[in-house]
Amino acid sequence: ATRGPEDPFHILLLDTTFTKNERVTISYVSGCLTYVLGMPQEEATELTSMCAANGLSCLGTWEREECLRLGRQLQIRDLCVRVVPFCEGGARGWQAKDAAGSDGSIDVPYSSGFD
């Protein structure tokens, strides 16, 4: 599918961020997210910790050009990120095969892994 310049894209933070350089810590990465993306510090720390524990974290969604610009700013700060086309989570029929409740919702237990 062809994507236009105003189509939404995601920025994914990858756990390889933490293996490239010993100065790249959770504190460093969350500071970069706060500075570059304008993300609140608490959320930046949560998403960074989620990435370190689970392999990746979705940092947010922006229009394509803005996403590419922000992604480059994070990369020059030694963060491993990928810009990927927007995808509505769980909205595709094949994702919820017979798992939906009567109202169409799916109960998925949440754990940050840091309880």
Verbal overview:
By secondary structure, this protein is an alpha+beta fold. The chain contains three helices and three strands. A three-stranded antiparallel β-sheet has the order 2-1-3. It is globular, with a radius of gyration of 16 Å. It starts with 7 loop residues before the first strand and ends in a 30-residue tail after the last strand.
Helix content: 25-40%
| Biggest sheet descriptor | 3 strands, antiparallel
Backbone CA Rg: 16 Å
Mean pLDDT: 82
Following the backbone from N to C, one meets helices and strands in this order, namely EHHEHE
Low-confidence stretches: 110-115
Tell me the number of helical segments per DSSP (H or I, 4 or more residues long). 3
End-to-end Cα distance, whole Å, is: 41 Å
Q: What overall geometry do the principal axes of the alpha carbons give?
A: globular
Which strands sit side by side, in order, in the main sheet?
A: 2-1-3
Helix/strand class = alpha+beta
Number of strands: 3
Strand residue percentage: 15-25%
